[in-house]
Amino acid sequence: MAALLDLDQLRTFVAIAESGSFTRAADTVFRTQSAVSMQMRRLEERVGKPLFTRDGRNSRLSEEGVKLLGYARKMLRLNDETLAVFDDAALSGHVRLGTPDDYADRFLPEILARFARSNPQVEVTVECAPTPVLADHLKSNQLDLAIITYIPDHRPAEMIRREPLYWVTSSRHHQHEEGVLPLALGRATCEWRRSAIAALERNGQAHRVLYSSWNSTAVGATVLAGLAVAVLPESAIRPGMRILTEAEGFPELPSCNIGLLRSWHHWTPLMDALACHISESLGNVTVEEDLQIAKPLTAAL
Question: Is 146 a domain residue?
């Protein structure tokens, strides 16, 4: 008979992955650190694979651990959804969601509509801010969930969507033909901005940043006005914009990877329910694809 996975062990495993630390995970699941370590040893024995690898005094998720993470989340969600069916008290309360404005216009209407139909008594607070700000607010317990642009330097996110990143210009103007390319990009720390400038420099293309904003609507407005060329993900392209191609001298850009970060301070059924709706609304990444780009977890033992 096949071994059965222990849901308590899986919940602790997910808490470690989401908090980035055995110590913080112990606080989340209300266990001692030694009990958490024991749970993980037993889970590794049950799976028959090492879930963590040593990195000096620290541990990180192994490839097998990253693979298990996606399945563990699915199993816990199904367990919670099953119990909720037999719970006479509907979910109610308050959940806090963060998202960059790049994704708010395109994705929030469907996410919130789906969630409201299933959970009409829940209040959702939405904060629109750049990814680094959202990550900080999650860390300081000001948010429960955050849709983010995946950045390798941040702790592992649950990858849920991948989109192409494009050079875009106005369909009615020709600013892309100027000798010194005028650009509208995010702030200096924006990953898309860094990728765009690095690609232009490799091509020896003269350029200057004329407009800089965290707000994608503002960036898009400069494109539509014929003032600059911008870099935007597929979901942010609007009528009146035209995609520039490699044949026109614009280098290929890396993909835009969208992830979901969850609070490690606490867990509620509301958070899981909203996370499920987000994944179903945005999801186009499989567990196997997620494994290829997820940054290994570093966790202090």
Answer: yes
Q: How far apart are CA 41 and CA 30, in angstroms?
A: 18
Residue 125 corresponds to which amino acid? T
Q: Total structural domains in the chain?
A: 3
- Indicate whether 263 and 149 sit together in one domain: yes
Same-domain status, 153 and 169: no
Nearest C-alpha neighbor of 181 from the set 164, 197, 166, 195 = 197
What CATH number corresponds to the domain at position 25? 1.10.10.10
φ/ψ (deg, to 5) at 179: -60, -40
Structure tokens at 127: 């904060």
pTM of the model: 0.64
Residue in 148, 166, 155 with CA at minimum distance from that of residue 234: 166
Residues 6+ apart with CB under 8 A from 134: 98, 99, 100, 127, 143, 146, 148, 261
| Nearest to 258, CA basis, from 35, 42, 142, 106 | 106
> What are the pLDDT tens digits along the chain (301 aa)?
467 899 999 999 988 887 777 888 888 788 888 889 999 999 999 999 999 887 666 678 888 998 898 899 888 878 876 776 666 555 678 999 999 887 888 888 888 888 887 788 889 999 998 888 998 999 899 999 999 987 655 556 788 888 899 999 999 988 898 999 999 998 888 888 999 999 999 999 999 999 998 888 889 999 999 999 999 988 888 899 999 999 999 999 998 889 899 887 878 888 888 998 898 888 765 433 343 333 333 333 3
Question: Which of 259, 269, 263, 261 shows the shortest CA–CA distance to 25?
Answer: 263
Half-sphere exposure at residue 257, Cβ-oriented, CA atoms within 13 angstroms? 21
